[in-house]
């Protein structure tokens, strides 16, 4: 008779001679492979809750029979981890591969010491900038004297007061201003960098 | 081969010196003690109560760390430190079961106190305790095995105790590998049921 094996952990266990269902065969194969891996020391981290519960029972049986040994390397590593873990919470001394308490403390304080040092350096730099004597400004060279005809200047000296009867003759005055400015321009161009 | 708990007077004196050194502040002195007792704690105290190697290793590490942290509280009474370490380990195992709320049946099934006091003349308490505990686990396992079908008992014996390959187990039982897988699967289920029921009835009897 085929058995219903939906409830693996709490359901009734069939008799050895009972015909298994396809589903039970599959579950049994998966479990057997898990046992294989566990015996080889490669228990997979992920498995169903039912498989885990059954594998725990299998491991208990093996452990009670004295079949489960902690490898020497793993044992040493756990002892070192435990010593290291304990040192974090006590004030005693150790040597060897575990970290001494003084070094542990130094490690805890190191970031704060670096942050404090950096702050001090920054504060000192700001203070120095603030308190330093301002450097003497180099004296600016005196402005080179240039001829009047190279400078911007009023046109009054060219005409003087404009008489009422000449008020409409602006063209002549503009021509005169243009000629005057052109003289200055020519003088500047022909000087070719020579000082006047 | 793992180190066994202290058995001789010389070993016990050496252990006492190491404990005193550790209590004086030299935690390095704890290293040989931890290395000596890591395997008995793992194999006879923690793993049989958890059934999960990864969790068992974590509990062992926490147990050893707690022992180092609290070594100053330990009082030497002319006996090995092992019972003290064992008690720490059992408390840690129960913490795990409380936190994960899983397979408490399994832990309960393994609750049986080994006598804490042994003959002080022999100074062999640590070795004795580990042996007693191992034997006690075996008796409980055998008791549960007796209650399951003969075919299931054989499957467990061949595969989990003798650790024979599946093919060999199937051959010895005269079945195919697929059928052997089903037998083992049912055997472990039946064993689990028996084991848990025995623990429950033991509790109700005030065991």
Which SSEs are present, and which pair or pack?
The complex is a heterodimer of chains A (196) and B (207).
Chain A: H1 22-39, H2 49-64, H3 72-87, H4 101-131, H5 156-159, H6 170-191
Helix pairs in contact in A: 1-2
Chain B: H1 9-23, H2 30-50, H3 53-69, H4 82-100, H5 104-109, H6 125-146, H7 150-161, H8 166-173, H9 177-204
Helix pairs in contact in B: 2-3, 2-4, 2-6, 3-4, 6-9, 7-9, 8-9
Could you name the key traits of this structure?
heterodimer, A: 196 residues, mainly alpha, 6 helices, disordered N terminus, B: 207 residues
Written account of the structure:
The complex is a heterodimer of chains A (196) and B (207). Chain A has 196 residues and is mainly alpha-helical. Chain A is 55% helix and 0% strand. Chain A has helices at residues 22-39, 49-64, 72-87, 101-131, 156-159, 170-191. In chain A, helix 1 crosses helix 2 (49-64). In chain B, helix 7 packs across helix 9 (177-204). Chain B is built from nine helices and no strands. Chain B is elongated and about 65 Å long. Chains A and B meet through helix 1, helix 2 and helix 3 of A and helix 2, helix 3, helix 6, helix 7 and helix 9 of B.
Q: Give the radius of gyration of chain A.
A: 51 Å
The residue fraction in helices of chain A comes out at 40-55%
> Could you tell me the number of beta strands of chain B?
0
Number of separate strands of chain A? 0
Our estimate of the beta-strand percent of chain B is under 5%
Report how far apart the termini of chain B are: 34 Å
Outline of this structure?
The complex is a heterodimer of chains A (196) and B (207). Chain A is mostly helical and 196 residues long.
